[in-house]
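Section 5.1 Outputs to date
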Amino acid sequence: MRVACFLLLCTVSAWKSSSARVVRFETSSAYHHITVADDKGVRALTFNGALQSQVSLKNPMLGHLAYTEYFHLPWLWNNLTNVLMIGLGGGSTPRSYQYYYGTNLTFESVEIDPVVVDVAKRYFFFKEATNNPVQISDGRMHLRRSQKKYDAILMDAYTEHRYGSFIPHHLVTQEFFELAKAHLSDSGVLAYNVVGTVASWRSDILWAVHDTMKTVFPHVYLFPVDDSFNVILIGSKSSTFYTLAQLQQRASELVRQRRVTHPQFKRRVNALWNKPIHRTQPPLILSDDFAPVNGLLQSPFWN
């Protein structure tokens, strides 16, 4: 299989050290140079100097990167009973799901780097449980071998490249999205974290992922994060399209019924992008065999 689509991803910002910073752990794994450091009551996980996850040392449910809160949005399309996440990092999202939904939901994580799993457990309050297991595997290979179907699949996997952090090429192609869709329940959704903006910085990367997802999913919704360059794309398997007003109504019902108790849930729904976009470039569809986006990586990540 010839693959040619390296895309830039995930790190909200480079970790900026201060005089108060204390390194708690540092090592090089087969995939990353991993550092865990404390600074002013916040513990941060970095890969090759780029921030991946953080948590408050006083309260593990605080201090996380805001974009992870948008991974609760799949509740808008489905009453979740089981969720798969590809990419563990510091475990902010599974830790949040475990806290807010407890044993009512099974949350399965897949992480390719066993050192990352160990770091999440030792330094980031992540606890594996019967309903919160972790598999050491490549995300796509895990889906190929699995017979399970999920109400939601969450994507937050990335690796390092000479130009910075980027989406692993085999997790962002049309073929991958078709595989993910086959593992979703009838009303299931795929939620994908992409670093970029809708209309300016790195919008070409964002729209390449969006357009590729649109060839597989009937509807793809964009939720730009209000305090970072993350955008959460949600591909819905359902043929029904929902407006912002309908999603807001659904959110209110979920909160009223206490199915969702996350304090920021209703606020994050309001981030839905529903403005027209005037695009001058034709859709760019990424595939295992052809993805003409190499030129997007010809400049440093932090330019």
